[in-house]
Design a protein that fits this description.
Low-confidence stretches: 54-59
Radius of gyration: 39 Å
Shape: elongated
Distance between the termini: 19 Å
Number of helices: 9
Number of domains: 4
CATH class of the largest domain: Mainly Beta
Mean pLDDT: 84
C-alpha cells in the first residue's frame, strides 16, 4: 500500500492526505511494537529465573516423610539434625537415622546427587513413617524412642524405576551405600546395617529343682554383653501373704548361681532372683517362679501346681493341656472381600469403580487356635479416603489421619471362641468428582487411580480417573530442556520482534522524507 501511494503521488498530489493518515497508523503501530518488544524482554528475564532456579516439588510435605517438609541440601539437614526436631516438632529424627546406622559424621561426609529407584538390581529399600496398608512394608521399632517406622522396596509399587534427588554417602559402621532423599528426608539403603553394640545385662532364668518334699535348689542364670559384669545374685522368697521368708545375696561373678533352701512350713511361695550387675539390678518374668510345699497331689496338667490351685485347669478346646500352655492360645485368621453394590458385582476387584459407586468391604476374623481370645479389629483406610468417603462402619470408630498415623477404622475388642468367626462391614462411596491429585513423589502408592486395602489379604480396586491422570500415568515427566535451548528460543522471538519494530521505524522515516520533499516542491 505504501509503495502504491508513493508511485502515484506525482500524478495525484491529493494522495498526500492518505499519506498522512498512513503515517499516523505507522506511529500507532510503532508504539504497539515497542511495547511488544519491552514485554518480550521482560518475559526473557522471567524465563531465565525459571531456567536457572528449577522449581521444587509442590507436595514435598507428607505424613510419610521422616522430615515433614523435606530438606533442600546438606546444610539444611545438619541444622535439623542438630536442632533435634523438624518443622512438625517431631524429635525422633536422630534416633531414626541411628537405627539405620547413620551418624552425624556420615551426613557431613555426604554429597548432593541422585539415585534411581531401580539401582542395585531393584534391592534399594526406603524408610517411611506410614505402612500405607500394604504388605511389603515391614515395621521397624526405633531404639530409644516410641517411634515405629516402615521399610520396603520401591519396585513393588509399579515395577519400574525413576530418579530421585538425594544426598549420597556411605555408612562408617560398615562402608555400605546409603542416601537421604531431599523431598522427604527418608533414609534409603541396600544393606541392612549391623545392630549397634550396647552393653547389656539380664537375668535370663530361674530354675527350681526339688531336693525333697521341703527342700529346693534355686539355679539362677544371668547374661552380659559388651563389657557389662555381674557381681552377685539376690534371692527373695515370699509366702502366699507376701511376707519375705528369704532375702539372701550370693556374691558370684559367674553367669550361674545356686542357692539351696529348706522350708519349715507347707504352702505356696514365690521365689525371685535379681542379678546385681554393673548396669544395675536386673530381673525378669523368667527369673520368678512359684514354689509349692504341700503333700497335696499335684495338678495333672501342671506339676508345679497343687490340684486345688485355681490355675489347675485345662485348655478350653484341648483338655489334655494346661490353659496357660504355649499351645493353648487363640490363633486368628484374617480375610477380606469387596463387592460393588451399585454395579451388582460379586468381586469389585474385577472391574473399574465409577464415580458415585458404593463398595462394601467385608472383614472376617476366624479363631483357628485352641483357646478363645479377645481381638481388636483395625483396618487402615488411608488409601481408601483418597478417592472415597466412609458411608457405614457399624460400631467402628474412624480415626483421623495426622502427621504420624494413617487413618484407620477400629472396632471394640470382642472375644472370639474357637472356630468362631467375627465379621465387620465397611461401606464406602466413590467420590462424585474423582480427584486429579498427582501421585506423591515419596509414596507412588498415593493417588494412583487405585484403592489398595490390606486386611489379611490385599485387595486392589481400580478407579475411573480423569483424563489428566491417564496422561500422568503414561508420561512420567515432561521432556528435559536445558538453559541453552530456552535461551535460543527466546533470542529468536526477540529477533522477530526487533525486526518488525525496526521495519515500522524505517517506514515512518521514509514518510517524513517524502512529505518534506513534497512541501519543498522537489516531488
Amino acid at each position: 500500500m505504501f509503495r502504491k501511494l508513493v508511485s502515484n503521488l506525482a500524478f495525484s498530489p491529493a494522495l498526500v492526505g492518505q499519506l498522512g493518515f498512513y503515517a499516523k497508523r505507522l506511529r500507532k503501530e510503532e508504539v504497539t511494537r515497542r511495547a511488544g518488544l519491552i514485554f518480550m524482554t521482560l518475559a526473557l528475564v522471567v524465563q531465565s529465573f525459571s531456567v536457572f532456579s528449577p522449581p521444587e516439588s509442590a507436595n514435598a510435605a507428607n505424613t510419610d516423610n521422616v522430615i515433614y517438609s523435606g530438606i533442600r541440601n546438606k546444610e539444611d539437614l545438619l541444622a535439623i539434625y542438630d536442632r533435634g526436631s523438624d518443622s512438625a516438632g517431631r524429635a525422633d529424627i536422630k534416633e531414626i537415622y541411628a537405627q539405620f546406622g547413620i551418624t552425624r559424621q556420615d551426613i557431613a561426609n555426604m554429597h548432593t546427587g541422585s539415585y534411581n529407584t531401580g539401582d542395585f538390581n531393584g534391592q534399594i529399600k526406603t524408610v517411611g513413617r506410614l505402612d500405607w496398608g500394604v504388605s511389603y512394608r515391614s515395621p521397624v521399632k526405633v531404639a530409644d524412642s516410641n517411634t515405629t517406622v516402615y521399610t520396603g522396596g520401591f519396585t513393588e509399587t509399579y515395577g519400574k524405576s525413576w530418579p530421585m534427588p538425594a544426598l549420597i554417602g556411605t555408612r562408617s559402621v560398615d562402608g555400605a551405600w546409603f542416601a537421604i532423599t531431599l523431598d522427604c528426608g527418608n533414609p534409603v539403603y541396600v544393606v541392612t546395617p549391623p545392630p549397634a553394640k550396647k552393653p547389656t545385662a539380664v537375668c535370663k532364668s530361674l530354675v527350681i529343682t526339688p531336693i525333697n518334699r521341703t527342700s529346693i535348689r534355686l539355679n539362677a542364670v544371668g547374661a552380659t554383653t559388651d563389657g557389662a559384669t555381674i557381681s552377685g545374685y539376690t534371692y527373695v522368697i515370699k509366702d502366699s501373704k507376701g511376707v519375705v521368708v528369704v532375702n539372701q545375696r550370693v556374691s558370684d561373678a559367674k553367669a550361674t548361681s545356686t542357692l539351696d533352701h529348706t522350708f519349715t512350713k507347707d504352702g505356696a511361695y514365690t521365689a525371685q532372683v535379681t542379678a546385681n550387675t554393673s548396669l544395675g539390678d536386673k530381673t525378669s518374668a523368667n527369673c520368678a517362679q512359684a514354689v509349692t510345699i504341700s503333700p497335696e497331689p499335684r495338678c495333672p496338667l501342671n506339676p508345679a501346681l497343687v490340684e486345688s490351685s485355681p490355675d489347675c485347669k485345662p485348655c478350653v478346646s484341648d483338655k489334655t493341656i494346661w490353659y496357660k500352655d504355649a499351645k493353648c492360645i487363640p490363633t486368628f485368621e484374617l480375610t477380606k472381600t469387596v463387592r460393588n453394590i451399585t454395579q451388582g458385582t460379586g468381586d469389585a476387584t474385577a472391574q473399574t469403580a465409577k464415580p458415585g459407586d458404593q463398595l462394601q468391604y467385608t472383614l472376617r476374623v476366624k479363631n483357628v487356635g485352641k483357646d478363645q481370645g479377645s481381638y481388636t479389629m483395625t483396618d487402615t483406610v488411608a488409601d481408601i479416603l483418597e478417592y472415597a468417603t466412609i458411608v457405614n462402619i457399624g460400631d467402628g470408630t474412624l480415626s483421623t489421619q495426622n502427621t504420624t498415623v494413617a487413618a484407620a477404622v477400629t472396632w471394640p475388642a470382642s472375644v472370639i471362641k474357637v472356630n468362631e468367626t467375627m465379621e465387620k462391614i465397611i461401606v464406602i462411596k466413590i467420590k462424585d468428582t474423582i480427584p486429579a491429585m498427582t501421585a506423591n513423589l515419596s509414596n507412588p502408592q498415593s493417588y494412583n487411580c487405585k484403592i489398595t486395602n490390606t486386611f489379611g489379604n490385599t485387595l486392589h480396586v481400580g478407579i475411573e480417573c480423569p483424563p489428566e491422570k491417564v496422561i500422568e500415568q503414561t508420561v512420567a515427566q515432561l521432556p528435559h530442556t536445558g538453559a541453552t535451548e530456552n535461551m535460543i528460543f527466546s533470542a529468536l522471538v526477540i529477533a522477530v520482534a526487533v525486526y518488525f519494530y525496526a521495519r515500522s521505524r524505517q517506514t515512518a522515516t521514509e514518510i517524513r522524507l517524502i512529505r518534506r520533499d513534497l512541501n519543498a516542491g522537489t516531488i
